[in-house]
Amino acid sequence: MDVKPLLAHIELELQKQVSRLDAPRIKPFHEMLTYHMGWTGEGAGPEATGKRIRPLMVLLCTASCGGSWQHALPAAAAVELVHNFSLVHDDIQDNSDKRRGRPTAWVKYGMPIAINVGDALFVLSNLAVIDLKQNYPAEMIVRAAEILHNTCLDLTRGQFLDMSYEGRIDLTLEDYWPMISGKTAALLSACCHIGSLLGGADESKQDAYRSFGHYLGLAFQVQDDILGIWGDEAVTGKSAANDLIEGKKSLPVLAGLGANGSFAARWRQGPIQVGEVQELARLLASEGGYEAAADAAKQMTDLALMSLREADPQGEAGEALFELADKLLKRNQ
Amino acid sequence: MDVKPLLAHIELELQKQVSRLDAPRIKPFHEMLTYHMGWTGEGAGPEATGKRIRPLMVLLCTASCGGSWQHALPAAAAVELVHNFSLVHDDIQDNSDKRRGRPTAWVKYGMPIAINVGDALFVLSNLAVIDLKQNYPAEMIVRAAEILHNTCLDLTRGQFLDMSYEGRIDLTLEDYWPMISGKTAALLSACCHIGSLLGGADESKQDAYRSFGHYLGLAFQVQDDILGIWGDEAVTGKSAANDLIEGKKSLPVLAGLGANGSFAARWRQGPIQVGEVQELARLLASEGGYEAAADAAKQMTDLALMSLREADPQGEAGEALFELADKLLKRNQ
Question: How high is the ipTM of this complex?
């Protein structure tokens, strides 16, 4: 299945949703949102929009359950708007100055207004869900909204854990999964759950789709953690071992801390410097950090694919879903 | 009607909604929310919770349309959670260090986590609306959610206008109403609208209730503006003319700027100092700032009461609604 038409419609739906703020007196506010979404301003274009994987998952899940992906477009926009709301606030919280190669919203507009940009994206996601009323019964909209809101609560939980881990040196692998379940897996899980719901799947099929998204999210994150330490700089486009310098509580690092060897001893002494990252990445690998992450990635990938087979997605959309999962799980960037 | 039982139930419902975050690993996060809500931590108690006027309005509107206020409790919690979400983010944006006499969330927990506290309150408000499904048909929940989400979009619009006015010296009265409609009137309007919807009112009655909330909000804000410049310090509990020092774009100030006299000339020269506020407050009054605000307050009050009479609220709840409006519109603090 060619997903290009789906991606084009996702972009149009997103623009339609965001255009609720395209009104007199607040044009500059609307422009801030279109800048963040990657449509306007310096560096606008496909590189700046991101891959729109989450909305694509919604549509493919709907279609592979036999539903109309066109009808599910507002839900696709909703999850992408939630994702972008969290990115805008994350960037403030993490003090990040670049996002997809461009200045972040808070760098460009100041922190106070960037908080408001994030809030507006969140509100727009809520309104997008309501737009489903054109094509679905009210009960289904309430259920979709409930799934999405619970997911958003998971996001705030994961974000809290992430921030609360800062500066802590007593963390182990047990602290990893609750954080990452909220920060990464919850939204992908919601995409598949809502997509299958709108596709007309029964509860047990919805569960399978939801599990697929959940494990896909976990596998994706663990892989991201591996690439962040041992990735090929030339391929990932960012300096490898960057995550070590930033002190990111990634799975390999938490495994290394749990092993309590030389890596853990060095980590606990304070921030890692640029000059020592290569040696520390090697040390972490020799103390089981790489293996733990690779094992976890494989486990989560297996669980994701098992869930997807159980979901038994149909037709071209089903094939596209397997292809997308395969691409996400085998990426090297 | 004695509103005390309603207020007690509102508090219980709010605690129930916020307890969604009372879970292992995130207890400290839950505590941050209960602190902001006024239930825990230093200075906890009735003074710290605020007056819960918005949820009370929801319940009184529902009951005065003949509905069960008990059934509407989740909606009451939802509007109060929206209000508190906006307060937490406002305090960061305005750099305010005190809220209801206590340190603000960002002062206590740091800006990054306070953003997350606000986000969580927002998510909880969304989930509270879904809880209405116990007692209302799905169509009504979708409608209530739509009203609330549109109101939240108004809040972000108003907040943007407020921030974008900063440092501008070309503002006039025309710039006042769009800002204040979003920042203050939208949520009170939504309270009355949703309350009457859940009470079973037809569309034209809902419109009357909605208008009542809208004009009540505008009247309330204009009155607040007057008290912020010419209020009795001993009664309001904050130093009068404080709004002048803070450079707040209140109605009297915008009227004064529009008059383009000595007050406007001084305003445009830069921040007002403590020593000159009394003289400037007198100057502003002599150049029509007080009269413009008093006239507007009277107009909005008349429109609010006219709308309420049109809504024709019934029974004890209806009487309580007139009393509450009267109290809000005749307050001196």
Answer: 0.96
